[in-house]
């Protein structure tokens, strides 16, 4: 009992001395704003290697008192700044680098931070790529940035010290997605007809060669030449198609397969274009045989063990005759091609324009599938229209087809016309200034509401005789003009 009394007295004394202040105050927290923070392309810092990254954050305190703060900027494992604002020249690995901005309250030792991402790219990022032929015949690329509008157009005929080649053919690419629809980088192929490496593959982040496609890419023991006049890709670096020596060639996972249909009795020679029709299980191609002056249909040769026929799924050895208009296309040559898929009806539509003299001939080749697993049947070719171009068809004339509006855009000299592909009639779009030169390549962009055209002015002084114009189709006006900035344009690629 005595012990309990002592314990009670001790507790009473201890409690009587507790005179603490329980009127708690709000902490003077630091608030950081003005720094991009996220994973998608709109919320990261896209910086070209060797240029400056400038970030001016807003740092405030909840109680609006004068701060006693210190700052640290970190990117990767390096501290790149200790001031409130960041102003640093970037020399980091290509690709995405994690960063952190830390603000320390020097009185309390409490730290506050915001994370961000710096995506370091080569000078060749989002923008317009003009594939051109230099005055010496070399393949060259001229680039206009869409990120920094004030940057001048830069040109090169090599990639990391490796020359592209000669006689440029085309430039093509696709988006490689990472974490979401806004997180991607562009993969690009540049193809030339001549040179030790006719096709060079790269990504626009690093802009260094990742692989080459040349004659050594054929399966071992196959000695075929590789001098492509056309190239296309199906949203993947593992499946590409070329025309070389007039023959259809497949490239898949690092391997070139032998030319298609080597036993064709007519020894076909394709124009530099193929209309491609895709299903889940197979691909079919429409090409124009310039040698025999008619359309040809290529597909995979089915295996028939009983008949001793063994098909190769990557060589497209079966050539089916297309009924109708074989004789009507005699004397006609390829001018332009395009098409679109109609998923609701399993119909694909290939469109082509042939030329003879000053006349253009418009054709439709619909392909209707009975089911995704069976070969298509092809109705008789429909000839939609034919007409002469005003002023005569010039040698450099070209055209492109919109799969959005189904309109052809036909360029002849410095004039651009529109003709609906279903019922073609010719309508004026715009006439470029007389000094612009001749339009020789064209590309649609921005949901097919704008045109990019490359022109060539042969009598211009200097080595750069090529220009680029951006045109508003509906407004029928020039939006942007970059004059005499490249060689002779061959193709245009837009990395947006």
Structure description:
- It comes from Chitinophaga silvatica.
- Pfam families: PKD_2.
- InterPro entries: PKD-like (IPR032183).
- This is PKD-like family protein.
- There is one protein chain.
- The chain has 496 residues and is mainly beta.
- It folds into 3 domains: 94 residues, Immunoglobulin-like; 273 residues, Methylamine Dehydrogenase, Chain H (7 Propeller), CATH 2.130.10; 96 residues.
- It has 1 helix and 39 strands.
- It has a 5-stranded mixed sheet with strand order 2-9-8-5-6, with no helix packed on it.
- The longest helix is centred in the N-terminal third of the chain and has 15 residues.
């Amino acid at each position: 009992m005595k012990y309990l009394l002592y314990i009670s007295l001790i507790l009473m004394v201890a409690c009587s001395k507790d005179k603490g202040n329980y009127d708690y105050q709000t902490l003077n927290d630091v608030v950081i704003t003005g720094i991009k923070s996220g994973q998608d392309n709109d919320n990261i810092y896209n910086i070209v290697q060797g240029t400056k990254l400038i970030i001016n954050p807003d740092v405030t305190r909840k109680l609006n008192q004068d701060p006693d703060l210190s700052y640290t900027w970190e990117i990767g494992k390096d501290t790149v700044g200790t001031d409130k604002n960041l102003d640093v020249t970037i020399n980091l690995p290509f690709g995405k680098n994690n960063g952190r901005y830390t603000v320390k309250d020097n009185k309390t030792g409490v730290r506050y931070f915001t994370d961000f991402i710096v995506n370091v790219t080569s000078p060749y990022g989002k923008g317009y790529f003009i594939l051109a032929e230099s005055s010496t015949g070399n393949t060259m690329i001229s680039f206009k940035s869409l990120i920094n509008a004030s940057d001048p157009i830069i040109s090169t005929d090599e990639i990391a010290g490796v020359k592209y080649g000669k006689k440029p053919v085309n430039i093509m690419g696709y988006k490689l997605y990472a974490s979401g629809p806004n997180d991607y980088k562009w993969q690009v192929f540049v193809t030339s007809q001549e040179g030790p490496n006719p096709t060079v593959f790269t990504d626009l982040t690093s802009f260094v060669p990742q692989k080459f496609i040349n004659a050594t890419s054929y399966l071992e023991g196959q000695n075929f030449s590789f001098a492509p006049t056309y190239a296309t890709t199906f949203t993947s670096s593992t499946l590409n198609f070329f025309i070389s020596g007039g023959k259809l060639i497949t490239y898949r996972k690092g391997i070139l397969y032998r030319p298609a249909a080597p036993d064709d009795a007519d020894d076909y020679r394709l124009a530099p274009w193929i209309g491609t029709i895709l299903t889940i299980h197979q691909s079919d191609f429409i090409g124009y045989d310039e040698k025999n002056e008619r359309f040809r249909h290529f597909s995979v040769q089915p295996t028939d063990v009983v008949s001793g026929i063994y098909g190769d799924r990557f060589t497209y050895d079966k050539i089916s005759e297309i009924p109708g208009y074989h004789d009507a296309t005699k004397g006609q040559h390829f001018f332009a091609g395009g098409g679109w898929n109609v998923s609701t009806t399993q119909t694909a539509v290939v469109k082509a324009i042939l030329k003879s003299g000053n006349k253009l001939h418009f054709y439709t080749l619909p392909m209707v599938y009975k089911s995704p697993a069976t070969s298509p049947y092809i109705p008789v070719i429909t000839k939609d229209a034919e007409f002469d171009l005003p002023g005569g068809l010039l040698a450099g004339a070209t055209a492109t087809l919109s799969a959005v509006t189904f309109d052809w855009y036909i360029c002849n000299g410095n004039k651009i016309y529109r003709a609906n592909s279903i019922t073609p009639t010719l309508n004026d779009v715009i006439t470029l200034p007389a000094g612009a030169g001749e339009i020789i390549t064209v590309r649609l962009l921005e949901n097919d509401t704008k045109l990019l055209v490359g022109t060539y002015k042969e009598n211009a002084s200097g080595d750069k005789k090529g220009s680029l114009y951006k045109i508003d189709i509906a407004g029928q006006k020039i939006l942007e003009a970059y004059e005499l900035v490249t060689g002779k344009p061959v193709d245009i690629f837009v990395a947006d």
